[in-house]
Amino acid sequence: MPALNSGGWIREALASLADQAAYFExxxxxxxxxxxxxxxxxxxxxxxxxxxxxxxxxxALNRGIAETCAPAIVFLNADDTLLPGAIEAWRDxxxxxxxxxxxxxxxxxxxxxxxxSLVPIARINSRAAGPLxxxxxxxxxxxINSLCIRRSVYDRIxxxxxxxxxxxxxDWMLRAFRADVGVVEIDRPVYRYLxxxxxxxxxxxxxxxxxxxxxxxxxxxxxxxxxxxxxxxxARALRRWHAAETAMLAWHQVRALDLSGAASTLARATRxxxxxxxxxxxxxxxxxxxxxxx
Length: 294
Hints:
- This protein is 48% helix and 16% strand.
- The protein is α/β, with parallel strands linked by helices.
- It folds into two domains: 2-195, Alpha-Beta Complex (Spore Coat Polysaccharide Biosynthesis Protein SpsA, Chain A), CATH 3.90.550; 209-293.
- The strands form two sheets. Strands 4, 5, 6, 7, 8 and 9 form a six-stranded mixed sheet that branches. Strands 1-2-3 form a three-stranded parallel sheet.
- β6 (102-112) and β7 form a beta hairpin.
- α9 runs antiparallel to α10, α10 (232-255) runs antiparallel to α11 (259-272) and α10 packs across α12 (276-293).
- The chain is globular, with a radius of gyration of 20 Å.
């Protein structure tokens, strides 16, 4: 669990952890909270707290992986919850599939309505459904917290790349996907994400929109440059993702009257892949067809 000034949410997260029937080792890495987060965590039995002031969320996750001795690892955000029986479901799935490095359950996404009730976010839940494919990994909700990952996979793939502030989880999952890490699917919800005003990515105000687009473009560019010709489906998915992220960032920059920034974004995309507008046209046609069918 990474945490930073999470006093308003962490009680429910810890309660969902305490309700799990299976045995687990729990480590909370605190980035220097100045509210009641540490006091709340101190009252939780069977939770080891590591104080790591100044750490980013991905630095905290890497620190937590290093601190635990568990053979398989799950992440729990301080503002989210594990669903009942989640750890048992992950454990049993990995036991059934010893050849797989990842057990993937379903994630659900909720937000607080004006009356204070939790309501599902239908459009995100719809996109998150189904097995993990290249398209879902690149374009859908990342939902890495719905995964239980064997330690041996981290030994093979490496930790999170902390140069990314928002998208290191997607970068890591893409690395695992390209390394052909086996995934066993669990056809039941195991994790609940909460969207609220303080969320870094599930934020209706989209405060981090431009940074997310820039990080996605960096990941797409790096992977396209090293794309294997033996995986044409992934290569096509990467090109479509790169084209869509380019268009979204450039349009955002135009709306912000950053015309030089938009021109630079388009020029970089063209230097990497001169055919990206064609990929964007195909992506737009698919999006329109999907919207008509909804």
